[in-house]
Design goal:
This protein has helices at 2-44, 51-65, 114-119, 243-283, and strands at 93-99, 104-110, 121-123, 139-141, 163-168, 171-183, 199-206, 214-222. With 284 residues, the protein is of the alpha+beta class. The protein has 2 domains: 1-45 and 242-284; 53-240, Sortase, Chain: A, CATH 2.40.260. Strands 1-2-3-4-7-8-6-5 form an 8-stranded mixed beta barrel. Helix 3 (114-119) links the parallel strand 2 (104-110) and strand 3. The longest helix is centred in the first third of the chain and has 43 residues, at 2-44. It is elongated, with a radius of gyration of 24 Å.
Length: 284
């Protein structure tokens, strides 16, 4: 009899483990969905790096590069070590990337190492840093989804004219999507600046499902004011979030909620079984 009770308890344990494993993954994604906007707001009101603070370093970095590309594909190796960041912020956040159509709010880190790409999106060293001078082409990389965030999973949903923002608390650079391009990981020359143009390129793996042997580039052009300066405010226009993004976020949150309820129900069954076993042992 005790043997049967023990087997039932072990069965409950295995079921609980089977619930906990997917719950960890979906719970991490749900946490990202719910907290990313809050992290963006906290950055904008924090004592973190301002554009005024980093602008001189950006200008020097871009001038020292001289328009050359010396980038390494961030997804090609796990051995890549990030260079030392010039950001004073202990978290190393350089700026924030905001894409209204994708409901995306991601911190931009300096250098696209494995560690940085697990925390947010990251600037690829060897390409320009975001700025307002002609001939610049910063490249920002992000995963096609990861265990704690969806990141660039629907980057291919962006279409010509969609807005992309690189933001500090005292500066906003607004870009408009100009087009997409599929390249091979070794085609670094495709990331080269284009004379006279003010670009931003977003890079991720392609296709969505493994094996992801190609790279997706979304190329964006800096928006200018009438007087010729860069845009300083994102504007108040309400942008419709992609239907696919809405469905994915709702699905992740619903599955997480379902798994939590299932865990509570199975947990109750488990503790009831334990209590019964203890009562039987006391009666013996």
């Amino acid at each position: 009899m005790n043997s049967k009770k023990t087997m039932r308890i072990m069965g409950h344990v295995l079921i609980l483990l089977g619930i906990l494993l997917p719950l960890y993954g979906f719970g991490s994604l749900s946490k990202g969905i719910l907290l990313e906007k809050a992290k963006y707001k906290a950055f904008m009101t924090s004592d973190g790096p301002s554009y005024e603070h980093v602008a001189p370093v950006i200008e020097k970095y871009n001038a020292d590069r001289g328009g050359e590309v010396a980038a390494v594909d961030p997804f090609a190796t796990d051995d890549y070590v990030a260079a030392e960041s010039f950001i004073d912020d202990p978290d190393g956040v350089f700026a924030f990337l905001r894409i209204p159509k994708l409901d995306l709010y991601q911190p931009i880190y300096m250098d696209a190492s494995k560690e940085n790409l697990a925390r947010g999106v990251a600037h690829i060293m060897g390409t320009d840093l975001p700025g307002q001078s002609p001939g610049l082409r910063p490249v920002i990389a992000g995963h096609r989804g990861y265990y704690q965030s969806t990141f660039f999973i629907y980057l291919d949903e962006l279409a010509e004219g969609d807005s992309v923002f690189v933001e500090w608390k005292d500066k906003v650079l607004e870009y408009k999507v100009a087009g997409q391009e599929i390249i091979q990981p070794w085609e670094v020359e495709k990331l080269a600046p284009i004379e006279g143009r003010k670009l931003l390129t977003l890079l991720t793996c392609n296709p969505k499902r493994p094996p992801r042997r190609q790279r997706l580039l979304v190329n964006c052009e800096l928006v200018e004011k009438e007087e010729g300066g860069a845009a300083n405010a994102p504007g108040d226009k309400k942008v419709a979030v992609s239907k696919k993004v809405k469905q994915m976020n709702a699905g992740v949150l619903a599955i997480t909620a379902g798994l939590i309820l299932l865990l509570l129900w199975r947990g109750k069954k488990f503790f009831e079984e334990l209590r019964k076993k203890e009562e039987e042992q006391e009666q013996e």
